[in-house]
Design a protein that fits this description.
Shape: globular
Distance between the termini: 16 Å
Largest sheet: 2 strands, antiparallel
Number of strands: 2
Order of helices and strands: HHHHHHHHHHHHHHHHHHEEH
Radius of gyration: 24 Å
């Protein structure tokens, strides 16, 4: 089941929210857990046992680590056991096929018989719930959160369906208080509905339209320079609107249930350095990698060379986390290299002025990274890079011209206009905190009035949401990109 489906919108979500608000406060976490397991089992019932098993394992390990004491040797042994099992599960399901295929390629090159392994199916969301489980037992070891004895709350944290499939990556220490006490107000529910609809529009209206363009360009056997750049730019926009759209929907659903999740995107394409980019893109993952991998490797405590090494290794492993493919490893190495270079050059990751040259160079680096991230293999990536930088023919090929529609071109232009507007607005906005949007405004004379601009905005979002539902019903299914990770 996915958010952008009629069964979720018109069956699962209304039933769940109805039961959720009809039930008492003490039963809502249990209901959320049950609904999350139904949501997950809709895809495959058999993997629900693995999901529950991982949850029980980390709950037990958390108790053992907590009982042993903060940062003690016994606690460290329990922690290492827990992390080893978690990574072993993730490694088997995510990398067994890749490892055997790579080994077989080497063996066949020497004339040896290859190993035969039944294809291992990747459980949806396993990377996210494994990472969240690891963060919990590490936080217990570090003393950042006490080990919980409430199995229902912990299981609901791991399984909470809004973020289960594609993030954001949550941490128990940030949500523990909300599981115990969270507010349910009309304003919060309304904010959640609006946020969910905004994400739905991003996904269905923009990302799904651009997906067709990107897929076609990357599939061309002899792309022109124009084809390659069109595909790269289409995928760059598609990935952002797809993934940030999912995050918006997850955050919106959380608000409907009284939870407030962390933001996952902050206009990343306005960045003027790769360091700044990773402070704005997939924030929940980048902070997880920093707190649980970069710092564990030593961070910047071991000298200059060690800092560069740790930055590079963190991004290399972050790339591998995305999938079992050499393309992800190269993509991680690409970003790790530039992070190390920028650290060496002392690049300011929070610029106060907008420098067009720095922005253009950073955006070029990001786009080049997305090409290999999207490519099925290194050969396809090399083909795209060769076409992009041959500068031989900027016209589109006949195959591309025949398939490209006016709607797709308009959507691509709209996507980048939207990115530019909101990105620059974010950069130049007033430094003082803005007042929370509310339908009731306070006028200069102290009287109260309605903020018709806010109502108009929400009305427009609602109309686009309805149009997106109609579009969804008429088109073929397009899964969220981050489901594969």
């Amino acid at each position: 089941m996915v958010f952008s489906s009629n069964v979720f919108l018109f069956l699962f979500l209304p039933i769940f929210l109805g039961l959720y608000y009809l039930s008492g406060q003490r039963y809502r976490n249990a209901l959320l857990l049950l609904a999350s397991y139904v949501f997950y089992a809709w895809w495959r019932v058999d993997f629900l046992a693995l999901f529950a098993g991982v949850t029980l394992w980390n709950y037990w390990i958390g108790l053992k680590v907590g009982a042993a004491g903060v940062r003690t040797k016994p606690a460290q042994r329990w922690l290492l056991l827990g992390v080893a099992v978690d990574l072993g599960i993730l490694g088997y399901f995510k990398y067994a096929n890749f490892g055997v295929d790579s080994l077989n390629a080497i063996m066949t090159s020497f004339g040896l018989e290859p190993f035969i392994l039944t294809h291992v199916l990747l459980p949806i969301g396993i990377s996210f719930y494994i990472f969240e489980s690891i963060s919990y037992i590490i936080d217990v070891y570090r003393g950042d959160t006490p080990a919980t004895r409430n199995l229902i709350d912990f299981a609901a944290f791991v399984a909470i369906f809004p973020h289960l499939i594609a993030g954001p990556v949550l941490r128990f220490k940030d949500l523990a208080d909300q599981f115990n006490h969270r507010t349910h107000t009309l304003d919060k529910f309304s904010e959640g509905c609006t946020r969910f609809m905004q994400g739905f529009i991003k996904k269905v209206f923009i990302a799904d339209t651009l997906a067709v363009v990107a897929d076609h360009c990357f599939a061309l056997q002899n792309p022109t320079t124009g084809d390659a750049w069109l595909g790269a730019l289409a995928y760059t926009a598609q990935l952002y609107f797809d993934f940030s759209g999912y995050s918006d929907m997850a955050i919106g659903l959380g608000l409907m249930m009284g939870f407030r999740f962390m933001e996952n995107f902050k206009q990343p394409y306005i960045s003027q350095s790769i360091t700044e980019f990773w402070r704005r893109w997939h924030i929940s993952l980048s902070t997880w990698l920093r707190d649980y991998l970069y710092i564990t490797l030593g961070g910047n405590r071991g000298g200059t060379f060690a800092t560069y090494r740790n930055l590079f290794l963190t991004m290399l492993l972050g790339g591998l986390w995305h999938g079992a493919n050499f393309t992800y490893i190269v993509w991680g190495a690409w970003h790790g290299m530039w992070l190390a270079i920028e650290r060496a050059l002392g690049i300011n990751a929070a610029p106060q002025r907008f420098n067009l040259v720095r922005w253009a160079f950073t955006f070029l680096l990001v786009v080049m990274g997305w090409v290999i991230f999207r490519a099925e293999n290194l050969h396809v990536a090399a083909r795209m890079y060769g076409a992009m930088f041959s500068f031989a023919d900027w016209q589109l090929s006949e195959l591309n011209r025949a398939s490209l529609t006016g709607l797709q071109v308009a959507t691509l232009v709209l996507a980048y206009a939207t990115l530019a507007y909101f990105g620059l607005r974010d950069f130049y906005r007033n430094a003082k905190p803005e007042a929370k949007a509310s339908p009731v405004a306070v006028h200069a004379d102290g009287s109260l009035g309605l903020d018709w601009g806010l109502y108009a905005t929400r009305a427009l979002v609602l109309l686009l949401f309805v149009a997106s539902i109609l579009k969804l019903s008429a088109q073929s299914y397009s899964p969220f990109l981050y489901f594969q990770f």
